[in-house]
Design goal:
The chain is an alpha+beta fold. It is built from 9 helices and 5 strands, in the order ααββαβαααααββα. It folds into 2 domains: about 80 residues, no CATH class; about 170 residues, Glutaredoxin.
């Protein structure tokens, strides 16, 4: 019996025995005999309790051993599995049709960054300042092109893209970016159609045409189809997917972007020399 159990049992007996003594003290022989009998019964109960506790401990030990054995089996099984294959980087240079797409930066820039984006994607929102910073740092050498790729589980992304396309078709490139910036500033929680409509109203767009578009999922899909076809061709799987001069950019850190851009510009300079 371990120390803690022994102390518990001794404490229990120590608490009970004085009471037995007080009860038995001053009684006649018959009463004392009864008390002694009760004491024996109680002692027997204590022994039974001790046995039960030992049995419980043994059961718990067995269960613990079974759990540890199972854990070791799981560990061995995991160790025996072959390591998962890392996705092979996509090194293909894609020829992307950007003729009708909105862009920022120099029209004839040496570096074209194409972003497939989703307005309901938080990662896409975080990509915006990085890309705009590149435009500031390379004003004559970099162009950022926007492509729509609303993910199927982002139910508000399609109407948001449709609002931006509507602005682009009605008032041109600058209007697209104005709508784009309003949507990005509002964030992923403010993409309901009434909010998008308020942006259209602020920009002086045709609200009747806007309402008709929002009421027609088929028309929205028609507007999105060209970009979705390009995304399929480029094997886009998620957002944001960014391609620099046709090559997928991984990673998308500011430093990695600059390294890629500087190499393109250096190679171009060497070609001219």
């Amino acid at each position: 019996m371990n120390r803690m159990k022994r102390m518990a049992l001794l404490g229990l007996v120590a608490a009970i025995l004085p009471c037995w003594t007080v009860v038995a003290y001053g009684q006649d022989d018959a009463s004392k005999g009864d008390a002694n009998s009760e004491i024996k019964e109680l002692r027997e109960e204590v022994r039974n309790l001790s046995s039960a506790m030992l049995a419980l401990q043994a059961s718990m030990n067995d269960k613990f051993k079974a759990v540890m054995t199972k854990l070791e089996e799981v560990k061995k099984a995991a160790a025996s599995k072959p390591a998962s294959k890392k996705r092979t980087p996509d090194t293909k240079i894609y020829d992307i049709n950007i003729s009708d797409s909105p862009y920022l930066g120099a029209k004839d820039a040496a570096v074209t960054i194409v972003e497939f984006s989703d307005f309901q994607c938080g990662y896409c929102i975080r990509e915006v300042p990085k890309l705009k910073k590149l435009i500031e740092e390379y004003p004559n050498d970099v162009k950022v092109v926007f492509k729509h790729y609303p993910l199927s589980f982002h139910k508000k992304a399609k109407p948001a893209s449709a609002a931006a396309i509507f602005a682009h078709k009605q008032k041109g490139n600058d209007a697209f970016w104005e709508m784009h910036d309003k949507i990005i500033k509002g964030g992923t929680k403010k993409l309901d159609v009434p909010i998008l409509r308020s942006y259209a109203e602020e920009m002086g767009l045709d609200l009747a045409g806007f309402d008709a578009l929002m009421a027609s999922p088929a028309e929205i899909d028609k507007l999105l189809k060209p970009d979705l076809d390009e995304a399929k061709k480029c094997k886009v799987r998620g957002t944001p997917t960014v391609l620099v001069n046709g090559l997928k950019q991984v990673p998308r850190t500011p430093e990695a972007y600059k390294t890629r851009i500087d190499k393109i510009l250096a190679d171009k300079k060497k070609g001219k020399a």
